[in-house]
Structures are given as C-alpha cells and as structure tokens.
Design goal:
- By secondary structure, the chain is an alpha/beta fold.
- The chain is 36% helix and 16% strand.
- It has 13 helices and 15 strands.
- The longest helix has 22 residues.
- The radius of gyration is 21 Å and the shape is globular.
- The site of pyridoxal-5'-phosphate (PLP) has 15 residues, from helix 5.
Length: 436
C-alpha cells in the first residue's frame, strides 16, 4: 500500500503539514461514507455514532443531498449572496422561518459557521436592545471565536492561552441536575437554579445592561445536559420581565436531533432568536440566525454577512435536508433511536458503577462516567479508553462534557436498527473490557 493510502502514511504526512493545534480524534482517514457507515482508506468499516459532531442527521451522502449539490455545482458554485442572490437561499429562508416556533413573522440572516451565527445573534440583540451584556450558562459551548470563546464554559482545550476574552459576558450556574450548582435535587428544588439569573442582576450586573441570554436547550459539548422544563420557562420569564432577548443556540440540538425541528420546542417557550448550522445542510458549511422579523430588521443593511454566507451548494443541500426530514420522518426516528440507546445505557449502568448518570433527550443520549458515585469524581481517562476500544472494534463514538467524561451519541438519524444494535453491542463490550 502506498504511503497515501494507509492511515499511518497519511498521519505521518499530516504531522509535517498540519499545525499540531488542529487535532483529530481518530486516526482513520476517510475514503467514503454512506448513511451511518464510514470506510477508511484501508477499507475498514466503522459505524458512525459521531455524525460529524451532529452535522449528519440525514446521514452521509444521502442521494437527495448528493444530487442537489451536483445539480447546483453544474449551474454555479458562488456568486456571493451579498452581490448577486439566488432563489435557493430565499426558499431555504422561507422554510426556516416556517419551522421556527412562534406565530410572529420571522426573518433569516445567513453566515457560515456555528460560532459566526452565535456572534451575529449577539450583534443583532445588541442593536435591537441598545444594550451590550450577554448571559450564558457556565457549561455552555458556543464556538472558538473571540466572543464565543468568552461564552464557552470549558478552559481546555477551547480557551487555554487564548485570552483576553471579549468583555460583557456573564456566565450563570447551569441547570446541571447531576451536579447541581446550588446543591439541591430535582424535582424537589422547583428549578431553583433559575434564580441564579435574578441573583446575577443583584450581585454582578444590572439587568438593564443585558442584551440577551444565550443558551443551548440541550448543552452539547457541556455533556448533553437537559435543563428541566420549569428552568427554561422561569429563565424565559425573567428575560421577558427585564427586556432581555432569549437566544436558543440550536447548532447541535436542532434539525430533528431531538425529535423536533428545534429542541427548544420541548420546553414550551418561544425564543426571540435561534441559531442553527451543522445538520441544516448535511454538514455543508452554512449557518443561520432565525429570529422575529422586528428584531432581525433592526440591524442596518450590510451589518451582517460574509463572502461565503448562504453558499449556493449549502442552500441546495439545506433544501434537500428539509425534504428528507419530512419524507423519511426523521423526527420519529430520533425518538426511537433515543429510546433504544437509553434502554441500553440504563442496563449498562446496572452492571458498571462507573456510569454515574444516563441522560439526554430523544436522539441526544449520553452517559457520564465517574470514579465514585458519591463523590462523582469525573473519569475522563475511562471515557477515552472506552472511545479507543470502540474505535479498535469499528465504532466512532465521541467523549464530551466539561470534564471530558461523557460518552454521547450523535449517530445519523438514518442509522438502521441493525447498525444501531451493532454499535451499542460494541459499546457494551468496551465497558466489559475496560471496566473489568
Ligand atoms: C451549541 C453549539 N454552538 C456553537 C457551535 C460552534 O459551531 P462551529 O464549530 O460551526 O463554529 C457548536 C459546535 O459544536 C455548538 O455545538
């Protein structure tokens, strides 16, 4: 095998040309991928529980996405939406406006990455409110740009050495029931941690200077933390009472991942702004800020944009994604995948005391590993060992969480029952081998 067709050969060449700051979890160089399967350059097959970190809800190389991209590429690949626009961008915006919860008229602004969408949501909220402050959750993740790093609650590897960070960002304790920030237990607590927001306005910053609160309805990189519904409702109410916009960062949790188009729909609140990316266009680069039209239209023309924003190939892929979500009912499929995974994780939890918590929402399921169920000391090295054992046995699964000790499933929603069962079987065997 020539050097460029082996994983080892490519890794050696990569070591010369890639900066070491750019890391990859697995040493498997992809040759092709289809549905929920990936093949590396040596022909080894993997079941994909990572789904490109949530970018592949409709699966790899879905024929409708491939055909939409091919057709578009033959017509044109880039004119710049800010120069000469095209119909697919309008059609996709119409679909996003219709899909976003709430009866108010909506409008969309395209950018390219998830972090950019969050940055622009904050920019828009600042113009609309005339205020500067941003409240975030202490375990949230919003990206790697200067502002979104400041909004992210994890130092290594995301923030270490990169400061100073953008000012006017105020984190509050997260509704992380397994590690309650105020030492209480749900449901007896009545979601008392929502009061941390009111306390912030007494102790740290005036509510009148806060433009928006940005939160993920299910914290992704934070470890698939699902807030109680009462928490989200309470926080939204506090925001409303204080003229603060509520931004739902759905970059990981959106596009049917939790059985609904947007995860915030589970919580009976209507956000002012939603950010979406990743699975919106099956991993093609595009992100969008979707919000109430009066808020979105408060910004001057030209205030938001970017050379690649609303790229035509991505818009074509996005339209195919909307079609696939409906025609293959991936909403119900997310729920079925979630149930199956939860049953498997809960049964593993009975056999392996290292599994401190099993949690999630629909197709976003996870388990948190600890050394001791009393102290809850995080066990990131065990999570890494399980991930590595799974990889050796043909499964790509990712660890996440503020402490790096959470195993999560973000498989394409088109995964077959057989593939899901085989993947879960590999996870089970990894626990048996690693936690003997
Ligand atoms: C909730 C959330 N927000 C923002 C981002 C940043 O997206 P991107 O990596 O496209 O900048 C991510 C990425 O994982 C995310 O999960």
């Amino acid at each position: 095998m020539s050097q460029s067709t082996t994983n080892k050969g490519l890794a050696e060449r990569r070591a010369e040309s890639f900066a070491s700051c750019y890391a990859s979890v697995f040493n498997c160089y992809v040759d092709k991928a289809k549905g929920a399967l990936i093949w590396d350059v040596e022909g080894r097959e993997y079941i994909d529980f990572a789904g490109g970190i949530g970018g592949m809800n409709v699966g790899h190389s879905h024929p409708k996405v491939v055909s939409a991209i091919k057709d578009q590429a033959e017509r044109f690949t880039h004119t710049c939406l800010m120069v000469a626009p095209y119909g697919s961008a309008v059609q996709l915006a119409e679909k996003l406006c219709k899909a976003a919860p709430g009866d108010e008229p909506k409008a969309v602004a395209y950018v390219t990455s998830g972090a950019e969408a969050v940055e622009n949501a904050v920019k828009i909220a600042r113009v609309y409110t005339g205020r500067t402050g941003v409240v975030t959750l202490a375990n949230g993740y919003h990206g790697r740009t200067m502002l979104t790093m400041a909004m992210t609650g994890r130092v290594a590897p995301f923030k270490a050495g990169f400061g100073p960070f953008a000012p006017e960002v105020y984190p509050v304790g997260s509704p992380y029931c397994y590690r309650c920030p105020i030492g209480k237990s749900y449901p007896d607590c009545g979601a008392a941690c929502a009061d941390l927001l009111s306390e912030l306005f007494v102790k740290v910053v005036a509510a009148e200077s806060i433009a928006c609160m940005v939160m993920e309805p299910v914290m992704g990189e934070g470890g698939f933390i699902v807030p109680p519904k009462e928490y989200v409702k309470k926080v939204k109410k506090i925001c409303e009472e204080n003229g603060i916009l509520f931004v739902s960062d759905e970059i990981q949790s959106g596009i049917a991942r939790t059985g609904k188009m947007f995860a915030i729909e589970h919580f009976d609140v209507i956000p002012d702004i939603i950010t979406t990316a990743k699975s919106l266009a099956a991993g093609m680069p595009i992100s969008a800020v979707v919000g109430s039209k009066k808020i979105m239209d408060s910004v001057h023309p030209g205030g938001v944009g970017g050379t690649y924003s609303g790229n035509p190939l991505s818009c074509a892929a996005g339209l195919a994604v909307f079609d696939i979500l409906e025609s293959e009912d991936l909403f119900s499929r997310a729920d079925i995948i979630g149930e199956k995974t939860k049953t498997c994780f809960e049964s593993l939890q009975k056999s392996f005391p290292v599994i401190g918590d099993v949690r999630g929402l629909s197709g976003m399921m996870a388990m948190e590993l600890v050394h001791d169920k009393e102290t809850k000391a995080p066990a990131p090295e065990l999570a890494r060992a399980i991930v590595s054992h799974c990889f050796e046995n043909g499964l790509l699964m990712l660890a996440t969480g503020t402490y790096g000790n959470v195993l999560r499933i973000l498989s394409p929603l088109v995964i077959t029952d057989e593939q899901l069962d085989s993947g879960l079987d590999i996870v089970e065997k990894a626990f048996a081998a690693v936690c003997k």
